[in-house]
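<context>
A single protein, sequence plus fold
<entry> Chain with its tokenised backbone below
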Amino acid sequence: MNSNEPSRILIVDDEPQILRVLKTALGARGYAVRTAPNGLEALTAFEQWKPHLVVTDLAMPEMDGIELSRQLRLSSETPIIVLSVRNQEESKIRALDAGADDYVTKPFSIQELQARVRAQLRRASFSEAAAPTEAFAMGDFVFDIPRRRITLHAAEVRLTPKEFDLLLFFAKHASQVVTHRALLKAVWGSQAVEQPEYLRVFVGHLRKKLGEGDKPRYLRTEPWVGYRFCPDGKEY
């Protein structure tokens, strides 16, 4: 992302009033903003304009926010924030499973959305431009920071950007109990500390990709508290 140009944000919603309000509010903060009324038109706009962030409604005609997220994740790691009037845990999990990075429930304040937009753009910019230069081995793992790659027993584990961030944070606190709130704040930002479903989804993804069985060896649950990363898979 070029620091000399405004960040580009694509807003997708089938309600014209919401598009107008969000375009005005984010435009006033210096962002370049384009809009689309559904997922199909959003895919076209995404390919033509290459936004740095997508903010999309969940329920829309033609193509909803869940399917739009899935389609974008086939070829892009651009951050996605999903908006919805539904506050059920199931809909949040579906959005996260589809590839969304964050979830905001309507009605929401413009200040809250702007904070989440800033957080996602900061993390995307860091991933692109400010990665450390080192790699390190830990237990059964090798973390290649510059390439954002992880190997387990010399075999590469293919992770999404958010999964990589989460496992790297675990590695930095290996063998320690890390609370749910600490994980949520570190990986998703302070606005997500009351969203435990984020962790259930992403820890589940990580465990599957790490080949964890019914009794996880690497990512251990500490009941009611958080998790503990054991990089050598041994009992503690």
